[in-house]
Amino acid sequence: MVWFWVLVLFTANLKLGLTHIHGGEQPLAKINILQTTVALHESASISAEPVLLGLKGEDTEWITVNFVNPKPSLDDWVGVFSPAKFDPSACPPVNERKKQLPYICSAPIKYKYANESSSYYEKTGTASLRFQLINQRADFSFALFSGGLSDPILVAISNPISFTNPKAPLYPRLAQGKSWSEMTVTWTSGYDIDEAVPFVEWGRKGDLQVRSPAGTLTFKQNSMCGSPASTVGWRDPGFIHTSFLKDLWPNFIYMYRMGHLLYNGSVVWSKTYSFKSSPYPGQNSLQRVVIFGDMGKAERDASNEYSDYQPGSLNTTDQLIRDLDNIDIVFHIGDLTYSNGYISQWDQFTAQVEPIASTVPYMIASGNHERDWPNSGSFYDTPDSGGECGVPAETMFYYPAENKAKFWYSTDYGLFHFCIADSEHDWREGSEQYRFIEQCLASVDRHRQPWLIFSAHRVLGYSSNDWYSQEGAYEEPMGRDGLQKLWQKYKVDIAFYGHVHNYERSCPIYQNQCVNKEKNHYSGTVNGTIHVVVGGAGSHLSKFSQLIPYWSIYRDYDFGFVKLTAFNQSSLLFEYKKSRDGKVYDSFTISRDYKDVLACVHDGCEPTTLAS
Q: Where does the record place the Purple acid phosphatase N-terminal domain (predicted)?
C-alpha cells in the first residue's frame, strides 16, 4: 500500500512539474484552421510581390503584401501558406457523420494581423505588410481572413510566389562525428535520391578539394505520433542529407559546399562555407565552448509573436553570430524550436541558426518539446512535443549517439570531455542510460582532458525555480538520487541544464552540502560539482522561488548563455553573458593540476591496499 502511494505521488510530481513549463502557447496553435469558412468577396483582394524570389541566389527575401477588405475589422489577419494551393481533397473530414471536408487543413507557416502597419486599416480597409520568407521547397500564397484566429473566414487569396530553385541545398548544420577527426555536414534540400546524388565537396583552404557522399533521410506524416504534427501542423520536411568528412587534420580551416549531381550531369551547388577542425584530444590550446538551452526560434519580420513566445531567441542568436570568431563549439541542450508539432518551424529554426551551425559544430540534446508524447516510450507521459515524439529532431540534426532514438552520447573537444544525457528517457540507477553515463564519465583520461562536463535538458541537479520549490524540491523528481554519486566519484567539474528558463549557478555541492566556500575562484582538489541552469536562451522566462537557497550563488531572471574558455590543462574561465548586450554578469575561474584531480575526496576515492 505504501508503494502504491509513493507511485501516485511520483506520477503527480512528474505531471505537476510539466504544467509549469509551458507558460506560453505555440502561436500557430491559436489558429482554428479546420473551422475556416469561405466567404470570398469580389471587392476584396490580396497580392504579393515580387513573384519570383532568389534571382541572385538568395535563400531569404522580403515580400510586400498589399490587400483590400471592404468590411475591415480589428481581428483581420493575413496567413502565409506553403505550398500555395489549398487542397481540401487531402483533408480528413471535420464531421465524420456528414463527411464534411474542411477548406483548409494545414496551418499557415506564419501570420500577422492586418492592422499591424496601419492604424487606419479599420477605416480604410487598405493596408500592406512586409514578410520575410525563406526557401522552403515549395511556393507560397497569402490569405486574408476575418473572424480572428478562432473563427477564420477566408476573404481573399493572393497570387502564388516562389523561389527560382525551391529544391536548392540549404541550411548546413555541422556536428562532431564519433571521432575527434570527423566532422559531419547535414543539410536540407528538395532532391530525393531518384533525382540527384547528394555530396559535399571539401578540403583544406587552398588545397585540392575532394568529394564525400551523403546519406539521405526524410520522415512522413504517418511517422508522427499525434496531432498537430500528424494533422494541421504537418508539412513535408524535404530531404535531409548527412555527409561524413573524415581524417581531418587538427586545427585547420576547411572549405566546403554541398552539391547535388543531377542525372543530366549538371550539379546544383550551395554557397561555400568554412569551419575549423577540432583539436586533438588533450591538445593544450585556447578552446571556447558556448552552452545554452531552450532558445526556440523567432521571426525577424515580427510575425507569430503575439504570445511573446520566444522573446529572447533572436537576441541570443545575433549575439552568438557577432562573437562567432571567438567560439569553437556550441551545445544547445534541448528545446530547440518549440515547434510543438508545426513542422514548418524546423526550417525556420535551421535558417535562423545557419550562420552559427554552418561554421562551428552545433551539438544538441533532447528536450521535452522534442520528445515527449503519451504512450511513445518517453519517460514523461506528456504531450509537449505536439506529436513529434522526437522524429524531426532525430532526423534534422546529427549527433554521435549509438542509437538516434536514444539521445545520449559523448563527445570530445580538445581539453573537454562531454557526457550528454537524455532526460526524456529513464536515467535512474539500473537503467540503460545510467550505465552509459557511468561509462562516459569513467572513460575520460583526466590528464589529457581535465575538464569533465555533464549535461541534460531537465534539471537533474539543483534549481530554485518557482515550480520546483512548490513541489518541495530543487530538482526533477528523483533527479540526482543516483547520479550524484557518479558526479562525485568521477569528479565532474560542471553540470549544465536547461528546461528552466533562467540562469542559476550553485556552489560546488555534494549531497546538498556546499563543499567550497569560494564563489569566484576554485583551486586545488576537485570536491563537489558546480550545477548551472542555463535555460534562458530565448523562451519565456521562469520565475525563481522567493527563498534563495544557501547553495545558490547567482540567479538571473533574464536571457543569456554560458561560455567556457579553457586556456590550458590547468586554467578554465566560466562566463555567463546576457543576450541583450553580450556582457559578462557572472564568472568564476578554476585553476588546478593533475594531482588535484587524482586526490581522494569523500565518496570519490580509489581503492587502496596496505600491501607493499
A: 172-276
Residue 17: its pLDDT value, please? 41
Asked if the model's pLDDT at residue 408 lies above 90, the reply is: yes
Ramachandran category for residue 277: left, alpha or beta (phi over 0 → left; psi -120 to 50 → alpha): beta
Lookup: cell for 225: 505520433
| CB-CB contact of 132 with 80 (8 Å) | no
The Cα–Cα gap between 292 and 332 comes to: 5
In a domain, 585, yes or no: yes
* Cα→Cα distances 334→8, 454, 498, 535, Å: 28, 14, 7, 9
Answer yes or no: is pLDDT of 3 > 90: no
User: Cα 73 to chain center, whole Å?
Assistant: 37
CATH code, 128: 2.60.40.1930
Give tens-digit pLDDT for 168-199: 999 999 999 999 999 999 999 999 999 999 99
- Cis peptide leading into residue 400 (ω within 30°): no
148 with 294, same domain: the answer is: no
- Position 10 pLDDT exceeds 90: no
Tens of pLDDT along 531-557? 999 999 999 999 999 999 999 999 999
Tell me the CATH number at 536.
3.60.21.10
- pLDDT tens column, 43-86: 999 999 999 999 999 999 999 999 999 999 999 999 999 999 97
> What is the distance of C-alpha 286 from the center of its chain?
26
Cα Rg of the chain (Å, integer): 25
Q: Is residue 83 part of a domain?
A: yes
- Length of the chain as a residue count: 612
pLDDT, position 11: 42
- Burial label for 311, CB within 10 Å (0-12, 13-18, 19+), is middle
Judge contact between 269 and 282, C-beta under 8 A.
no
φ/ψ of 174, rounded to 5, equals -85, 150
Given a cut of 90, whether residue 9 has pLDDT beyond it is no
Chain-centroid distance of CA 473 in Å reads 27
Number of domains in the chain: 2
Q: Are residues 291 and 436 both part of a single domain?
A: yes
pLDDT at residue 610 greater than cutoff 90: no
Neighbouring-strand partners of residue 23? none
Give the separation between CA 210 and CA 195, rounded to whole angstroms: 22
Q: Which of 138, 163, 188 is the last residue of a domain?
A: 163
Whole-angstrom distance, CA of residue 508 vs CA of residue 138: 52
> What pLDDT was estimated at residue 181?
97
Residue 18: per-residue pLDDT: 42
Claim to verify: residue 312 and residue 446 sit in the same structural domain = yes
Question: Is the pLDDT at 21 greater than 70, yes or no?
Answer: no
Q: CA 115, CA 353: separation in Å to the nearest integer?
A: 30
Q: How far apart are the first and last CA of the chain?
A: 54
Domain endpoint, select from 132, 163, 194: 163
Q: Is residue 170 part of a domain?
A: no
According to DSSP, residue 156 is labeled E
Q: Estimate to the nearest angstrom the gap between the alpha carbon of 130 and the chain centroid.
A: 27
pLDDT band at residue 471 under the 50/70/90 scheme: confident
3-state helix, strand, coil in the chain (%, to 5): 15, 30, 50
182 domain residue, yes or no = no
Asked if 122 and 74 touch (Cβ cutoff 8 Å), the reply is yes
46: containing domain: 33-163
